[in-house]
Amino acid sequence: MATSYDVAVIGLGGMGSAAARHLAARGRRVLGLERFGPAHDRGSSHGGSRIIRQAYFEHPDYVPLLLRSYELWEELCRDSGADLMTTTGGLMLGRPESRTVAGSRESAEKWGLPYEMLDAGDIRRRFPTFAPADDEVALYEARAGFVRPEATVDAHLRLAARDGADLRFGEPVLSWAPLPGGEGVRVVTGAGTYTAGHAVVCPGAWAPELLAGLGVPFTVERQVQYWFAPRGGTAPFRPGRHPVYVWEDAGGTQVYGFPAYEGEGDGVKTAFFRRGTAASPDSLDREVHPGEIADIAAHLAARVPDLPGRFLRGAACMYTTTPDEHFVIAAHPGHPQATVACGFSGHGFKFTPVVGEILADLATTGATRHPIGLFDPRRALTGGAAVCSPDRRDAHEVTP
Ligand SMILES: Cc1cc2nc3c(=O)[nH]c(=O)nc-3n(C[C@H](O)[C@H](O)[C@H](O)COP(=O)(O)OP(=O)(O)OC[C@H]3O[C@@H](n4cnc5c(N)ncnc54)[C@H](O)[C@@H]3O)c2cc1C
């Protein structure tokens, strides 16, 4: 039986759950469709922790969104009663001219964000778990920390449901398309056909299939998160002593990590920022291989002397990367009845609450006060994997 909604949200992961929450809070009749269960570990929003920071080396234009995101995280913690965010301070480490250090400093300066610059001696004295080389420095940002991705998705979903959203799990969307005449969309799943005034499409690593018509050359990458038990125990790695960090080496490779925190047992989590391999979400290799563990272990041993210690476990996750590593958030250029959010390029989670707000703005009013010019899918984007052939442009079909 066809049911009509104001907005159908396709994909209830990091971004879709936030969109559903913001739309339901504005009194819209929301349908949410998700192929897996709530807060699952098959996409891009699992693994217990995600770094949040404001002095953003990726581009200064992200900073106003981060400031709003921090406000919304606090609101979300209050409204849901969940413990979602821990401020630990953050070190952006590398040579002074590295993108990680210089880019963070540029953003902090441009927006007047508080920060400290530390030389190698300062870093060793204040944070003895780290062993920088003499020519390395760090930008220290007291407001950095981490959020809990599964608990955040769960909080957004619970609040959306409380406000009346109809959330359906285990129901993959097979296709979506504008209705003839242009008023609204039709969404087909294995269980039925729905109509809605508008679609918000947030499919994460399934964007190459569900948003082929955008013509953005996305690359889906497999990225592994690793947990190690430090030599000598976790006490020196607790929040307050061991901040979150991103550490860039002379070759531009970035490794990042977290303190040991409640719920993580006796381990600390680390990962390479961008050293993934091309992957497909339906055939992702979830096994973590000895060569990969040896690779990150060698990288850590030179920088965090109490690591790697003992390997505990690993978990594969996916990035959906655009050629310039900036997001895609916009009204669909071909279909004004749809809003899209995808291509978060491995750094999107810290924005989930503000992306939810932006998607609700775009779906209900066609505009947003937030600066999203950087995320226009029509910008010049070349490279990556070609996923769009001309005959698929308007199909939006998931091939079974
Ligand atoms: C290892 C790793 C570490 C990261 N670290 C950080 C970090 O420290 N800080 C940070 O800010 N970001 C980080 N990120 C990035 C961040 O987690 C992602 O950018 C963010 O989670 C993406 O959210 P999403 O909603 O686009 O994808 P997802 O959360 O995967 O949601 C997409 C959803 O769509 C559903 N879906 C897809 N197709 C269909 C369909 N046909 N029908 C129904 N449902 C469908 C999927 O099942 C999924 O639930 C990291 C990512 C990884 C993998």
Automatic annotation (TrEMBL):
Its EC number is 1.5.3.2. It is an enzyme of class 1 (oxidoreductase). NCBIfam families: PRK11259.1 (NF008425). The gene is solA. Its cofactor is FAD. This is N-methyl-L-tryptophan oxidase. InterPro entries: 3-OH-isobutyrate_DH-rel_CS, FAD-dep_OxRdtase, FAD/NAD-bd_sf, MTOX. Signal peptide: none annotated. The keyword Endoplasmic reticulum does not apply. Residues 6-362 form the FAD dependent oxidoreductase domain. The lineage of its organism: Bacteria, Bacillati, Actinomycetota, Actinomycetes, Streptosporangiales. Coiled coil: none annotated. Pfam families: DAO.
